[in-house]
Amino acid sequence: MRDQGLEVLGHLLEASHDLAPDQIVAAVAQAGRALDAEDVAIYLVDYEQTVLVPLPDGTDRTPLEIDATLAGRAFAALAVQETDTESGRRLWLPLLDGAERLGVLGLTLPGVDDALRVQCAWLATLIAELLMTKGQYTDSYFLARRRHPMSLAAEMQWQLLPPLTFVTPRVVIAGLLEPAYEVAGDAFDYALNGDTAHLAVLDPVGHDLTATVLAAVTVGSYRHSRRAGLGLADTYAAVDQAIATEFGGERFVTGQLAQLDCVTGRLQWLNAGHPLPLLVR
Known about the structure:
By secondary structure, this protein is an alpha+beta fold. It has eight helices and twelve strands.
């Protein structure tokens, strides 16, 4: 069984090199059939993180609420969920890119043992990686996740963000933007360089398209300073100068900049005119 699972993954991986984004679902269904799986379905989480939305596969599928379904429980708990059906055992597996939750994989098997569960988990991991890779070449995955029309400012803002979740044994970072479809200006950014986690929470003034442009300049300057190895004070000065140069005195940004030593736990932070952060233990 182990060899069969590796063979299935190998075939899917080889086929993925020239696979169009809209062919992923069909390729995954074919890989599932090689494991005797039926009713294979891929669901992506919507922008508000409340609903799992199916990728089109020619089947009449409805979105699944995260708080009220087994699929949602698999997504939220990051654990396989199982239930008996008339045709076998239905499995729901989280789709993870690192720690970033993309959605869930659903499939039905005539019978399940520990070895087959492992192979299905491998398949879910590979699917998540393919979705992240192929998602760079298509709009269909972005459109599938949308439950409401999105403003231009929000569209730009979401493309500016890093992945929403990052996990290592020493540090966990997570963020989200609300309202998801109308947000403008608000942003966050982070990076882990060696043993240091760099963090920024930014709030440009306004809620229009100009606020999003201001956020892009601010995040770009922050990343440029961070990659140049500047400390918090020098980063603050560089970002402030970039904003002043581009926008004069008409626009401003408040925020928090921080650096966390993941070995010692020492946190250094700088407040840039923003309400103070809240420490939750």
